[in-house]
Amino acid sequence: MSKLYKKIIIFLFYLIMTLPLLKPNISSIAVIIFTIFSIPAIYKSKFKIKDLRKYLFLTIPFFLFLFHEVFSKSFNEKTVLLGVPFLVFPLIIFFKPYFITIKNILKSLVVFQISTLLQCIIYLVVFLKSNHIIRLLDISNENIPFFREFVTANYLKEMHPTYFSSFLLFSITISLFNYSKNRVLHTINFSLSIFFILLFSSRVIIIIMLLTLFSFIILSLNKRIEKKIYKTLIFVVISLSFLYVFKLDVVNKRFIEIKNHINKPIVGNYYNSTNTRVAIYKCNVFLMEKLPFWGYGDSLQKELNDCYEETNDSNFYKLNIYNTHNYYFHMLLYGGWIYLLIFFIFLFYLFIKIKSTLLYLFIFIQFILVNLTENYLSRHYGVFLFCYFTAIFIFINEQRNTRIKQI
After folding, report:
1. Which stretches make up the O-antigen ligase-related domain (predicted)?
2. End-to-end CA gap in the chain
3. How far apart are CA 62 and CA 294, in angstroms?
4. Cα–Cα distance between 367 and 361 in angstroms, integer?
């Protein structure tokens, strides 16, 4: 293999992790191009087929969706295509070209972080071209951050604010555990990522971020940190975060909304993110109580809309699509109790495989928590990143365990 060919393949591999900058179709094309160009190198790579079974387990969610669609009355190819990353990424990582090393895989995480920061800067430029900087922290009467609403509506590609905020959350976590490797990059990334999480003001992400920072401090107190200044810096940032984050209107009003509106039903045009979610979760429970053995399949959204119509004096559900906003409810209502059980077994398997490395464990738990309030794995950006991370984390742990056994 020529050096040029190897460099092209490695470049295409890194391109996959520019996900925050790409539209869904472009990111999918990046994966396809990498796969096609890698075929000559794959033929020269040596694989132990017996090791493939460890990765085939990661493909289970894909086959769950495929099975349900094949044996349902109406085959929905969108549902199957959405689950393709569960199939593709384990195979890509297992059959990757032999010259893509663990070092390259770890560098792809840095590519992801830099891409996320670049996307933040682009969002900021788009905003400042039409608005004064003092409007960054504005919030509407409906408790929606102005920055969040503006960039979502005026940028070339639409990405749900919670999903982009999750990118920032994962990026912060990577910086926490890799700070000593590049202090300048991780300091900049840490500061800017927290700032933009506050601007987007996704409540679940803010809560998970604070839990992450707090947990990291607790762990670091029991271990030696290379530089005392690192511990001091993190401690100060976390203290300030806890003291001031909830005093900002852009954040404060979002959480006050929960207290003031959680018990107020949706009536006509009176609805917000809080009472809308309450209405959604009530319908989740309602549908669960009369759940068919194999779930509702692709008629789930229709069942939800019928429930919204029957239980609320409003047509809010006609203005936007409101799914279960909880991926575990989604699996249950889509495929029944058996599907939910299999999915939990799948998650437990992942936990066993990555629990020995704190960075991977932190990110895995963050995925678990985000899925409590979002159908995170039902959107391209969520399932794409989840499948990539879990595949590379398991690969790295498997390689390290193999080396330890050989020693």
Report:
1. 190-344
2. 30
3. 16
4. 10
Note whether 17 and 109 are within 8 A (CB).
Answer: yes
CB atoms within 10 A of CB 102: 12
Q: Look up residue 251 and give its two tokens.
A: 């954040």
> What span, in angstroms and rounded, lies between the C-alpha atoms of 286 and 297?
16
Reported pTM? 0.90
Q: In angstroms, rounded to a whole number, what is the distance separating the alpha carbons of residues 399 and 371?
A: 29
Query: Taking the CA atoms of the chain, what radius of gyration do you get in angstroms?
Result: 22
Instruction: Report the C-alpha gap between 69 and 75 in whole angstroms.
Output: 5
Contact by Cβ (8 Å): 249, 139: yes
Token pair listed for 37 = 């160009």
Helix (H, G, I), strand (E, B) or coil at 78: helix
The DSSP-derived string for 230-251 is HHHHHHHHHHHHHHHGGGSHHH
Question: Measured on CA atoms in the order 26, 161, 116, 211, is the torsion positive or negative?
Answer: negative
Residue 7 tokens read as 């460099």
> Please, what is the Cα angle at 383 between 382 and 384, to 5 degrees?
90
- Both structure tokens of 270: 């009176």
* Contact assessment for residue 61 and residue 346, using Cβ atoms and an 8 Å cutoff: yes
Token match 């926490």: residue? 176
Q: Is the dihedral of CA 80, 86, 89, 90 positive or negative?
A: negative
Paired tokens of 35? 């796969």
CA-based torsion, 231, 236, 242, 245: positive or negative = negative
Beta-carbon contacts of residue 142 (< 8 Å; ≥ 6 apart): 272
User: No. of H helices and E strands in the chain?
Assistant: 20, 0
3-state DSSP percent of the chain in helix, strand and coil, to 5? 80, 0, 20
